[in-house]
Structure formats: C-alpha cells, structure tokens
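FAQ: What does a multi-protein file look like?

Like this. Sequence, then tokens, then the next protein.
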Amino acid sequence: MVDYLVSLAIYTSIFALFALGLNLQWGFTGLVNFGHVAFMTVGAYTTVLLSLKGVPLFIAALVGGGFAAILGLIIGFSTLRLREDYLSIVTIGVGELIRLIVNNQDLPVGDKWISGAFGLQSYPIPLAVFRPSLFSKFLMIGLLTILAAIALWQLFLWVKNAQPMLVGDGTRKIGSNQELISRLGVAVVFAILSISVYISGVISLYNYNPKSGLMLISLIILALFFWRLEILLRSPWGRILKGIREDEEVPKALGKNVFAYKLQSLMLGGAAAGIAGALFAWQIGAVYPDSFLPQATFDCWVMVMLGGAGNNIGTILGSVIFFAYDALTREFLPKIIPLDDARLGAFRIMVIGLILIVLMVWRPQGVLGKKEELTLGK
C-alpha cells in the first residue's frame, strides 16, 4: 500500500506540473493548445538521450525543458500572428508529428543506433543507486516534512482568505459562505491526501525505496514551479496575460506587445511540460512513442477543466481528482463490471467523458474556477 501511494503521488505531481503548463497557456492567456503532449515528448526524449551520453541528470532535464520551450517558440512564431484556431490545429499536428518522428527515426544509444519504435530503456534514473546513510534519510524526511507543512499552511491561509469579513455597517466586505464552504471542502480533501502521502513517503524514505526519492524530487519541482508561477501571475506580467485572454485589443491599445506575451506564455508552459516529461521518463523507466499518445493531452485538459481554468490550485485539484478516479476504477471496477481489459479501459474513458458533460452543464467553470476565467466561449 505504501509503494502504491508513493507511485500515485509521483504520477499526480508529474501531471499536475504538466497541467499547470496548459493552464498557463489556456486558462490565463487564452491559447488553445490541443497538442500539449508534444512538449512532454521533447522533454522526455531529450533528457533520456542526453543522460545516456553521460550528461548529469538534472542538467539533462533542464535542457529537455529548454528544448520544449524552443518548440513553443517555433510554434508561436508560425501561428500566434494568425487567427486563434490556427494554433489549436497546428498543435494537434505537431503532437502527432513528433511522436511519429521518434517512432520512425533511429536514435543514438551509446555507440550504436536503434529504431525509435523499440523505445529507450536502461537509462539513468535519479537516486536509483543511492544508498543513503541514516543522516541522509532524516534529511530527506525533513524536506518532505517541510513540504507537507507548507502545503497545509497554504491550505489554511487559502480557506481563511475566503471567510466573510464585515465592515462598520455590517455588510460583507469579501468572500461568501458558498466560497468558504467550497474551499473548506477542498482543503479537507487535500489535507487528508497530503497526510496520507506524507506518512507513506516517510515510511518509504526511511526504508529507502528509489521511488520515494523520485517522489520527493517531483514534489519539490512542482512546489517550486507553483510558487514562482503564482508570483508571476500576480505581477503586471500576469495581469497582461489575463487582459490578452479577455480581449487582446485592450492591451494592444495600451502599447503592450501582445505577440511577445503570448510567445512567453507558450514557451513557459511548454518548458513546464518538458520537465514533466523528464520526470515521467524517470518514473516509467522506459520510454516508447506510444507513451505519448494524444490521450495524454486529453487527460491534461480534463484535469484543467475539472479544477477550473485560470486557477492553479484548481489545476492541482483536478490532477488529484483524475488520478484518484483512475486508481479507484482500476482497483474496484473489474470487481463490479465483468469486462476484459480493453473494454474496461474504453469504459473508464467513456465515464470520464460523461463526467465532463455533466460538469459542463452543472458547473462549466470547474470545481474552483470562475465563469469569467473561461476562454473557449469568448
């Protein structure tokens, strides 16, 4: 059970980072990207190929993120001056194009070249051969404790900020009971999951399992990116992105270079997806072209829409909901519905689609989103 929770935490944190990149592009800037998996593919393959050449793993991951950002630059230069639908069409094509290239292209592995269809295996993974001393174990547990404490504290502040405050005449100043209740419910779920992952992580780190080291790395990277992204989005840069999402003619009238801001958003979101690709490659231990099907982009959109566009906490919540659903249905659905694996997988995807339809009718802005943050219908 401990190893299962650790693995689930790794996948959730990786795809939360992946989804934060898409949320920056769509939720905050209004860029419709239907090929987000292309950035993950570039990040994963770049990291693996460089690490096989002896490049240190974290430098390889940063280069992978940089290459993904360059891909965003190339896509942006070719589409962002055109109508909005061109970006969505081009990103779909680029996602499949890159997957087909790595599937059909020979890849350099050591002193020989192998067919991309065979995938890449036996590459270095962080902390795989690490044999920590007792001090190192307690140091890693301390880092995990700090992350858990920060997460719980931020949840507390987030709920506290939704509490209704009264001015002298007794009218509400900020917040509402409905907002407070929704935030409190989300915070309770997050807190329970955080404590469960923390306990599992402590046990796994103390009895050292390399996956627990990867979990710690993934959570640290997610926390750092979320922290810096929140600061950026509260700055004038972030406000301009929101202005572009609402009506790009207004920032243009104020003298802002809308094209440059769109390009920056596309590149930063792509870099996040590229680093998520590196983490994903380390988690699965072998990368194949079919590891990066368009389904990954669909899953990412589900996460963003579930949590709420334009809300980074909502995006992480959407990732948690998605992987909780995935884990529960994998475990219990075969016991309820007697289907083979292929039909069961299709049924699970069908249920996700049904949930999205219901959500779009009942609450189109997502669990934590706001209707004014939506961009598809503008």
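And here is the next protein:
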Amino acid sequence: MTVVELLPDVLAPLGLDRRVLAAVKRGLTGAGVRIATGVSATGQKEAGGSVEVTLSDGSVLAADRVLVAVGRRPQSADLGLDRAGLAPDPRGAIPVSATGETETPGVFAIGDVTPGPMLAHKASADGLVTAHAMAGQHHATTPHEIIPQVVFTDPEIASVGLSEAAARAAGHNVLVGRFAYAGLGKALGMRESEGFFQVVASAVDHRLLGAVIVGAEASDLLGEAVVAVRNGLTLEQVAETVHAHPTLPEGFHEACESALGRSIHTARR
C-alpha cells in the first residue's frame, strides 16, 4: 500500500507534534505502508487488470485499487442561503455565533456546514447548544480548540487542546510531560508497548492546556484528558488522584507527574 500526500507531511492539518507523527509513520512503515509526501496524483490508466497512477514527480505506481480522499468542504451551495440573507465564507461555511445563530436573526446552523472541525461529536454538541438557545435556555459551549479528535490509525492518535508547538506559538511558557506505554504493566500484558502519553500545561499555574495519546485504545483513554483540559485542571490535581493499577489510564497520571519532574516510574538517562 502507498499513501500519496500532497502536503509536506502526513496528517499536517491536525497540527500534531513531530514526535506524534514519527510514531505513526513508524507504525505505518512497519506494516508495509509506503508514504510519499510532497507529491500529488496527476493521472491514472488501466493496465492489465491493475491501475497505473502517475505522480507529480514523474514516478508511476501500480495498484489494484485507488482510493481518493482529498478532504471535505461544506455543501452549502444549493441551500438557498441568499434567500435567507446569508452568504457563506470562501470555504462554503456559514458564519455563526457561539449559539449557532447566523447573521439573520432566528436562523441557525450547526455541524459541518459551519466553521470548525468537521466531526460528528462537534456537530452533536452544536445541536445541543442551538436547541437550548432556540428554547431561550443556556447551554455551555466548547471552544473549537478543545474539541477532541481521534485518528484511527495503528497506533491510534487521540488529542485534545493545544499541542506543545501550538502552545508555545500562542505565547505560553509550558511544562511538558511524557510517559511511554512500555512503562505500563497493563500495556506489556496486552503486548501493546508502542506509544506514549503527553501532556502540555502552563508553567505559570500548571493548568492543563492539551494532551495527546498515541497507542492502543487511545480513543478510549482520551476521556480523562478531555475532562481535565475542558475544566482547567492542574497537573497536581491529576497527579494526586490515585489511578487503579495495572491499567492504561495510569499513563496519563504518570505524564502529569513527569511534567512536574517527579515521576518515579520513568527511566532516567
């Protein structure tokens, strides 16, 4: 299998740290997947029961099947927005307020047709906020940057909030803690020792700004991190909460301990 990516790296739009991308690429190459970045497919033709795909660098790939997945855009062109006094942005998204109300009072929009991550759980959250607003009630909103996202690769990638690079770019002085799956007895027993937990926190007040988990069951493990980031918990609040042993969630606890410089289960080199 060959993955052809126009951008300089895989998963570039997600803003993941290089350490995360490196782990995913190791997993893909270990599974026999070739990754071609910085190139695009310029043509294809049938050739003896297979397909020959020509790339922008002049190389040719032979394949049994070709899957095209080049992103998504809001499908707003045929909704009659002009009749409601609305105009989409250049990408086709409909601008809305925090409660989902458009520039036309009484007209609301939610989900993939609005700005923000195009994720089912984001759309569901939008719907709840908007339904409450239409009923004259309040429902807390969630900023786009703390909407959790998961990439179901092998290993899985699950993240919420700011990455280390994004936090620094935003002007934060940060503390970063990491803990490897290889340090978890449960992970070793599962034969899933590849991967790590990473947390990013403010060096000023130790509040968690973001977290990423790369490894087995990362999508399920992210829940605790989402609650912590959404509610501004500190490294100490997580680190001083006893986690059951042996379990995978211990990794999040240990990453917080690591950020505080007091992890006792991390190998020192």
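Q: Is there any per-entry metadata?
A: Some entries carry free-text notes. For the entry above: Residues 120-134 form the longest helix (15 residues).
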